[in-house]
């Protein structure tokens, strides 16, 4: 391979990438400012938080596209591409690698996909810096009696900023450790946590801006909401493990697998966590039975998760509370079933695979939305209906929040 002499970490283009992230972030920042001219700083911060959540969701979707098109090693170093800020400067190195391995991990197309993902991530990082600065300014103004108290502590965006930096570190390790399954899965988990952190802030700030109270849920229903969120989170981890180990096609029939309800599986191999891609810790190749175990555990867990989501939707509608999140959960559950089934029986089509990841991320956003907009307490009649903002992850028009 021509990239063996290239250092895994080459910080030469770091400053240019940071400046590019600022330029990318200027677009959303200017848009929020223009759409909210004459509004209060509190309104600006709320609108920017909603928009950052939306763009972060898009980033997670593009990250799935990057992984599923095998573009994760399109540039074999970090943070640039062969020590350059873009694939344009690395044209010669990429061409040499592509000529040596035309279907290998380094091609011109894959390099651009990988670098665009990094550019977008840097832009989101700059937006979160702006959120953090804005939150601390709002806190200081409130202490001086020059504005309302913030809906959440400014430590929320501060921790979010820390988390996005940590997420960037895992993105670097994803490249330098050559798609190590555990690292790639942790990178996916980090993206989901980032969405949840931003969603809490978007919901609470929107509730505060609209002077709406939290929805009261009975203790049992709120416990079910928490339990379902935990189950969906665990299922996303299992799904990430399936994807990063390329175990989707270990079972190509449904509902049975390989003509059996309990196919040959090697659980010890499939769930040996710390190992290179396609290999075991002793250097031998993971068996097909190991890949089958990874796939089938995710499928069996899906039945439990679908049941929990169906029960939660039914309980929410029966209680007459959080009806908008309940509708979203019902629709997303159907989407997940349809895209998951398509991945199995249609030979893992790219569109279905990306939508499956996006649906999982959207489920976490909606569940977090419901948790952040509710509290434990008795529900009387329809008192809890429409006490929450529209979904903050669906963009400005879908959310009906002018940003």
From TrEMBL:
Keywords: Cell membrane, Disulfide bond, Heme biosynthesis, Iron, Membrane, Metal-binding, Oxidoreductase, Transmembrane, Transmembrane helix. It is an enzyme of class 1 (oxidoreductase). It is found in: Membrane. Pathway: Porphyrin-containing compound metabolism. The chain crosses the membrane at residues 14-33, 45-65, 116-135, 155-173, 179-203, 223-242, 296-316, 328-346, 352-372. It comes from the Bacteria. This is Cytochrome c oxidase assembly protein subunit 15. It comes from Paracidovorax wautersii.
């Amino acid at each position: 391979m021509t990239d063996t002499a290239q250092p895994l970490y080459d910080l030469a283009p770091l400053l240019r990438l940071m400046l590019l992230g600022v330029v990318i972030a200027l677009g959303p920042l200017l848009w929020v400012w223009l759409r909210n001219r004459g509004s209060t700083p509190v309104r600006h911060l709320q609108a920017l938080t909603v928009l950052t959540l939306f763009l972060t969701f898009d980033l997670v979707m593009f990250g799935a596209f990057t992984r599923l098109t095998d573009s994760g090693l399109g540039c074999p170093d970090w943070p640039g591409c062969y020590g350059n800020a873009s694939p344009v400067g690395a044209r010669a190195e990429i061409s040499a690698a592509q000529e040596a391995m035309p279907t290998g991990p380094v091609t011109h197309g894959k390099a651009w996909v990988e670098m665009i993902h990094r550019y977008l991530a840097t832009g989101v990082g700059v937006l979160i810096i702006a959120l953090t600065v804005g939150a601390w300014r709002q806190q200081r103004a409130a202490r001086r009696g020059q504005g309302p108290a913030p809906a959440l502590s400014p430590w929320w965006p501060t921790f979010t900023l820390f988390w996005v930096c940590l997420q960037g570190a895992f993105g670097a390790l994803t490249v330098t450790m050559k798609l190590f399954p555990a690292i790639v899965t942790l990178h996916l988990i980090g993206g989901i946590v980032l969405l949840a952190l931003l969603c809490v802030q978007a919901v609470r700030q929107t509730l505060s801006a609209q002077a709406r109270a939290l929805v009261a849920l009975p203790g049992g229903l709120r416990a079910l909401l928490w339990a379902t969120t935990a189950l969906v989170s665990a299922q996303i981890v299992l799904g990430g493990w399936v994807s990063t180990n390329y175990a989707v096609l270990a079972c190509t029939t449904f509902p049975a697998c390989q003509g059996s309800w309990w196919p040959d599986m090697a659980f010890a191999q499939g769930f040996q966590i710390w190992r290179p891609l396609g290999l075991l810790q002793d250097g031998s190749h993971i068996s097909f039975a190991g890949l089958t175990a990874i796939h089938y555990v995710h499928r069996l867990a899906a039945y439990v998760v679908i049941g929990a989501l169906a029960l939660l939707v039914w309980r929410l509608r029966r209680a007459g509370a959080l009806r908008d999140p309940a509708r979203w959960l019902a629709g997303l559950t159907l989407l997940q079933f349809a895209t998951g089934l398509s991945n199995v029986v249609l030979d893992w089509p790219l569109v279905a695979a990306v939508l499956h990841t996006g649906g999982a991320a959207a489920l976490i956003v909606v569940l977090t939305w419901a948790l952040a907009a509710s509290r434990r307490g008795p529900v009387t009649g329809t008192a809890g209906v429409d006490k929450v903002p529209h979904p903050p992850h669906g963009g400005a028009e879908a959310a009906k929040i002018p940003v």
